[in-house]
Amino acid sequence: MSGYLDRMAEQGFEEVSLFHDPETGLKAAIAIHSTARGPALGGTRMWTYPNEEAAVDDVMCLARGMSYKSAAAELPLGGGKGVIIGDPCRDKSEALFRAYGRFVERLNGRFITAADMGTEECDLDCIRMETEHIVGGSALGSPSPYTAFGTWKGIKACAEEVFGTSSLEGLTIAVQGIGSVGMALCAHLAEEGSQLIVADLDQKKTRQAEELWKVKVVSPDEIADQKCDIYAPCGGGGAVNADSVNRLNCRIVAGAANNVLKESKYGAVLSERGILYAPDYIINAGGIIFVEYSRQGNKDPEEIKTVITGIGGRLKEIFRRSREQQLLPEEVADLFAEERLKEKVG
Asked: Is the pTM of this model over 0.70?
């Protein structure tokens, strides 16, 4: 793990904790990147990682992204993330999530968790049996619709930047990954009159999308090749990578996924190819805005959506600065977030 210690120092991590509960088989990791602005809030992801190293790498990437996401959204939160190694379709149990809840409790409120890919509100109910440092659950509802709502508003801002209008009517949009967020995003896009191409490993989801919106379905291996106006990654991270970056046939990359760029260098490749990239932690911040407002006791969905609508304006400002300063959009976003990370909150 010495490599991870070097990385923690280089990227300013406060803590990375590993946990194993032999009785339930739980293997988990929590990374706290920053608590400078407040407690580190981030969802817990459950995924079939190939090994522990891959899980730790993912949780660190995600945690750092959460610091930047919260700071850029000007929320009084730091950044953290949790991952559970396991198959979300086969390995869930009340005992496992309660063991994870005890893990969260050990951090004494420095980390607050919520739902993420592979975890659902009923799973949070089990975690809550062991810790109060959690937001969400059956009583509150999922942040996914709010993530999708903000992503939709952000895509409209991207369209205005590239096509001169925020209308998405008639545009072809390829959505990679139609889980709870991707499906909710498709609903907004279809209602506006977009032509949809979708891909997902779960064929039940693609059949549902076909029935609802008459979408074109392609395999996950084919989605990056589709001729479209906008490519919207809404699944796991690294959608823009060495294999896909030169295959993309679009004008905009804007989606709800975290860590869309497998490596930062691919942002420059997109720019050289004339493709606008919407920094992921800016466009997908709707979920954490919902979670934080709910944590503070504000559960008015319309008021929360009004705040989330500001994502579009934030992207427009980033694109303006990008042009004026001759920086990539993600470079401008990082500078903006880093400025906020240095601010005193409260």
From this structure: yes
